[in-house]
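Running co-folding for adenosine monophosphate.
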Amino acid sequence: MSAPITFDNSYGQLPANFYTRQALQPVTKPSLIKVNLDLAHQLGVDPTWLQTKDATQVFAGNALLPGADPLATVYAGFQFGNWNPQLGDGRALLLGEVLTDTGQRFDLQLKGSGPTHYSRGGDGRSPLGPVLREYLVSEAMNALGVPTTRALAAVTTGEPVYREQQEPGGVLTRVASSHIRFGSFQYFSGEQDQASLRRLADYTIDRHYPDLQASEQPYLALLNQVIEQIAQLIAKWQCLGFIHGVMNTDNMLITGETVDYGPCAFMDTFKQATVYSAIDQQGRYAYQNQPAIAHWNLMTLAQALLPLLHDNEDVAIEQAKAALQTFPDRFDDHYNAHSADKLGLTPSKVSRALFSEFLALLETHELDFTNSFSGLADRLESKTPLLPTDDWQQWMAQWHAALQDSQDKPAARHRMQQANPYVIPRNHLIEHAIQQAYSEGRFDQFDALLEAVTRPFDPELARSRFAQAPASDEIVKRTFCGT
Ligand code: AMP
Ligand code: MG
């Protein structure tokens, strides 16, 4: 039989100061929860093998496939604005990379697989709850069209993990275009190790942005490219009501994929200042702050890249500043485009104003973000306002006027149905799925929720329980990293 996964590792070819090789740390009694057959297909991983006991052993970190080369990578980061010169994969292990038929390269990483050189006293493990949560939310994000890391498999370890209470342990197999973070560059910048910094930049360009090699200033082009990717990403988050919760620079990928589904959450009732993360006491990573935080994070990335931009520091700073100044407009362009889609309009000053006004009304009347948008398509023909109030009636009249000006109704409906999901991974449903796993050791709620969140735009689900806002006693107000 051919190998179930063919590895083609490149990160481990980089110099030894980029990572620490790490032996596996087996768990006593692994058991499979879920494998992602669609993703396996995309990766060229044998789907039949995926469901075998052998595969479970691999996903638990108990067995090594031929060609895997487990290592923990080093990075640094600004956490809640504070510089931390050395972090690294403290509870994750890069097994290796796969190269698909279409030439795409992906990291395969175990998360929760035990302590590494970078664990800083932590146990390197993950409770089952965060594993289930990441599986659900990352796969939902993918289905919603948001760049993201994926989930290939989830297993229980059969071992307890000790947090505030004892919890069952789990391991997630995470797939990403790579795990190169802003913090990966910042580590070498902090070490004042320019050679490694350059090496990482070259590797990143080669792996992710090969077109930039032809650029006159490839490192400046890299910075510009990352600014663009992040502008696209955050615009999508904002238009879906997604709150990341820990936008530290070690949690920002250079590819602009969403990573680190810790205390993240989709909003139910809309409020600009919403914060879910229990540790974000200042509200630094509140919904409304995400674009500005992304900009700040890009500024710290640019700072790390300065020595690569130009030998003359003043020139380098000018170039970085000019690049960073493009972020607000880039973000606005993407945000305008998505927000216009959500209203079935073409982007313009009018669509932008209507969108802002809509959000303000949601906040005033404490309405559900997702369902208010998905309910709009039904109002293309009727002028029934979301609520029978003057302000809503006025908004509806203005929206209908804009629709008349812009385009035909079927086209508008189509745009809206592609932009306004019926189903998001609602916090209370995630909680229910986790509770069932903890109390009964069963995953049928998890399975059903996963099935629903990976069909977010399916009108068949519009009236299902997955599309309903939480009842008042179900509302989740706080989320936790769970680390
Ligand atoms: P996070 O805020 O979840 O992105 O984690 C920040 C850093 O803490 C990363 O370097 C993690 O690898 C590390 N970390 C988080 N939880 C653990 C844990 N249970 N054991 C070891 N390291 C951890
Ligand atoms: Mg992290």
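Result summary
The pocket of magnesium ion (ligand 2) is lined by residues 250-251, 260 (CB under 6 Å).
The two ends are 39 Å apart (CA to CA).
Job closed.
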